[in-house]
TrEMBL record:
Keywords, alphabetical: Cytoplasm, DNA damage, DNA repair, DNA replication, DNA-binding, DNA-directed DNA polymerase, Magnesium, Metal-binding, Mutator protein, Nucleotidyltransferase, Transferase
Cofactor(s) named in the record: Mg(2+)
Family indicated by similarity: Belongs to the DNA polymerase type-Y family.
Originating species: Actinoplanes lutulentus
Protein name, entry field: DNA polymerase IV
Length: 390
């Protein structure tokens, strides 16, 4: 049995925990875009990501608070300590959720359901946060169960009852079914997971393509052989920042601060990377992703920033036309040991690498805000930094 533990409205819950005046009231976390909404705000139809103006129209009495990433990071670390105290087999998924394999702990800690009850109680007691846990025999179904059990709940799918629980659910509950795939299925009167299960694999493949067809056919029958893995390596390391609609049109300083954060994390993890990806979200909520691969892997701030700015410059006409509400940067194609290929003739450590190292040491000793770029003075950076990138 596998547990999927997911903190409820994480950012908003941290704000309500830290400010008693916000408890029981609709809370929105964000600037121009809603990064998180409390369940009191969600009851009015607020979702993420939604423009703040739209959210205010739906919930006029909502309280808007700016994001505090340092507080969310501290809360996440505490919750993951509780996860690690529960079982040695923990697979982080993001800053606020993880899979836990507890099946081998029956003799020392009780059944998976008993462990899930204690886990929720400990997170509430030690971290002061609500968490929902789904318990099932596969990772896929455990995640579906936690989603169905929200908010602040525990939902168990007993062995033998998996398909009875799964098949009445809408097709959107299947991993990989977004709006486009859902529309294709509904055009053919396929509305539930049970409908998908009754269609042959060959029909799904012809409808959706080879990979997607086989994937959805397996999930609809609750076939998910993946086990909880503790050795998961990041596929990429990234950060992003939501921008207000009235933001300064020059977003290069924001992009530079994001690159500072990403490359510092890369050096801490000893992971160099080759592919730089710029992520943009526009005022009409459309998105664009632009990537460029470097000739050699690097974790040097200046090299990655230079590439990121080039990608941004190449898309200025699109930004001017649609308006920009979010900018993000990620580095992928990461190596596992932080190795960087040396060039002939061999030289001492470049000055730029020495500067990166010196700045890292200052921030490690005196805090992340001890050094800031001059261009960021008077600016606020509130990025959403995932624990594990997508």
């Amino acid at each position: 049995m596998i547990l999927h533990a997911d903190l409820d409205s994480f950012y908003a819950s941290v704000e309500q925990r830290d400010d008693p005046a916000l408890r029981g009231r609709p809370v929105l976390v964000g600037g121009g875009v809603v990064l998180a909404a409390s369940y009191e705000a969600k009851a009015f139809g607020v979702t993420t990501p939604m423009s703040l103006s739209r959210a205010r129209a739906l919930c006029p009495h909502a309280i808007v608070v700016p994001p505090r990433m340092s507080a969310y990071t501290r809360a996440s670390r505490l919750v993951f300590e509780i996860f690690d105290d529960t079982t040695p087999i923990v697979e982080p998924i993001s800053i606020d959720e993880a899979f836990l394999d507890v099946d081998g702990l029956r003799k020392i800690r009780g059944t998976p359901v008993q462990i899930a009850h204690r886990l929720r109680a400990e997170v509430r007691e030690r971290a002061g946060l609500p968490i929902t846990v789904g318990v099932a025999g596969t990772k896929f179904l455990a995640k579906v169960a936690s989603g169905a059990g929200k908010p602040d709940g525990l939902l168990v799918v007993p062995p033998g009852e998996e398909l009875a629980f799964l098949h009445p659910l809408p097709v959107e509950k299947l991993w990989g079914v977004g709006p486009v795939t859902a529309a294709k299925l509904r055009e053919r009167q396929i509305h539930t997971v049970g409908h998908v299960a009754r269609i042959g694999e060959a029909a799904l493949v012809s409808m959706l393509g080879g990979h997607a067809g086989r994937h959805l056919h397996a999930l609809a029958h609750n076939r998910d052989p993946r086990r909880v893995s503790t050795g998961h390596h990041r596929g990429s390391i990234g950060a992003q920042c939501a921008l207000g609609r009235s933001h300064d049109p020059n977003v290069v300083p924001i992009l530079a601060a994001l690159v500072d954060r990403v490359t510092r994390r890369m050096r801490r993890a000893r992971r160099s990377g080759r592919t730089v990806t710029l992520r943009l979200r526009f005022g009409d909520f459309t998105r664009a992703t632009r990537s460029r691969s470097l000739l050699k892997a690097t974790m040097q701030t200046e090299a990655i920033l230079r590439t990121a700015v080039e990608l941004l410059d190449e898309n200025q006409s699109l930004i001017a036309e649609r308006g920009l509400t979010l900018v993000g940067i990620a580095v992928s194609n990461l190596d596992g040991e932080g190795n960087v290929q040396m060039e002939l003739p061999f030289q001492d450590i470049p000055d730029k690498d020495r500067l990166d190292t010196a700045m890292d040491l200052v921030r490690e000793r005196f805090g992340a805000d001890a050094l800031r770029r001059g261009s960021m003075i008077g600016r606020d950076l509130s990025p959403s930094v995932p624990l594990l990138s997508d």
